[in-house]
Predict the 3D structure of the following.
Amino acid sequence: MKIDPKSDADLSAQIATAIRDEIIAGRLIVDARLPSEAELAEQFDVSRPTVREALKRLAAQSLIRTQRGATGGAFVNKLSFTEAYAQQITTSTLLLSMNDVSFETACEARFALERSCAELSAQRCGPDDLAAMRAEIHRQGQPNLSDEAFCASDVAFHRALVDGAENPVLSYQLAGAVEAMQPLMNMITFSARDRARIVALHMRIAGAVEARNAADISDGLTALEAETQSLARSLFKKGN
Amino acid sequence: MKIDPKSDADLSAQIATAIRDEIIAGRLIVDARLPSEAELAEQFDVSRPTVREALKRLAAQSLIRTQRGATGGAFVNKLSFTEAYAQQITTSTLLLSMNDVSFETACEARFALERSCAELSAQRCGPDDLAAMRAEIHRQGQPNLSDEAFCASDVAFHRALVDGAENPVLSYQLAGAVEAMQPLMNMITFSARDRARIVALHMRIAGAVEARNAADISDGLTALEAETQSLARSLFKKGN
DNA sequence: GCGAAATTAATGTCAGACATTTAAAGTTTC
DNA sequence: GAAACTTTAAATGTCTGACATTAATTTCGC
């Protein structure tokens, strides 16, 4: 594990990259302990603060975790779906907000992606995910539900639909895409009339899942996309 | 911008979170300059090394960039699709390798996701993306192409297909999913016979794009998925 | 007025110290 | 001998202060 003395990048960045490469290449496996900060400092011939900056970079990406105390140190972290998912949401959210992505483009991508679970969810969706969908639909029908709670329930509904595909990789990718849209969706406030139409579409989708009809799930999502887009258009036209 | 004195997390982590929240909330906008390290140290009542660790955490996520010199400092970075995409690939790749995700599961998710661009690519794919697909197909037919180059060309082919949807958000999500699979795909070495079948399917997909036939694109991808899965199965059975 | 040199303000790096945490080894007590 | 307590050691977390390096700005000389 060496760094290039000719590079003019920060030492801490170079060290972080060197360690990251070891992890990606599998030469440092999950739960392996890195040398102590003092040892790393000696190995790379830098000071301890510099090593620490490098380790913090890796910690920010959940590649390592640190533990204090006698048997402590930095350990290669087993990246969980939950952590990866949280990171992806942060990144995607910022990406959308910083690049002036139009609601239309983001919405199109979101539903296109979500439709990709239709086939598998129709085949595999179990009673628990279906029950979760029904529960969220019921919640969405409550008249005194706040806009924030309605949006959160909406996310939970789609999450259950996606999880019905019983493929964790797909869930990870789709849940990230759906949730990254949430801040944009929150800009829309729903009238009672809008909510009723959305809930109706949710019921249609849940019904299609129960009937194990992939095409109907897909069509339901397409209808929901059209509804969302037209809602957004009417709001933006009003100069909101 | 304050931190909770009761929290027992690392100071640098708390500070990083505080600044990240400011960015996400839009109170620190793109290209805004953060206070200098010395000023931040004073504001948060910590030392400069601690502030630096926090800043490195943010830099690791491409949330800030730093510049040396008189007018230097840390600036809120405009997260580009390219950066977000690189990060997503690293995360997804590690996620797959660390969680014993089976080839079957990952492959299923990858193709399910990719099919989500079929409709849009059929509608919008321009001559440049189509030409890119044709060029990769031609390259894949060269008999003296190395396995690595064949895989890279395969990725480029799918990348062009996805870009044909003309939706940057979709490209970002899908390209990440496709490329994260690459290390797993690289475990498979292709015989000449395998290559010929894959190239034939690529031609079929390219033809469907040119004919603007979304269903055919989708079917072509499904056939490619079946081919890939059976190839993987036969390899793993041989005890590889 | 223009070019070169000095200034300055920032990040990058280092050295050494102390604080805190945690597990394990050692010691005492019953 | 076992349980409870104490000590020790090794690690990360944090601080202080210094110096190095970079790059824009200002000043000075001509």
About this structure: Residues 36-38, 52, 66-74 of chain A lie near DNA strand D (CB under 10 Å from a C1'). Strands of chain A lie at 64-67, 73-76. The radius of gyration of chain A is 23 Å.
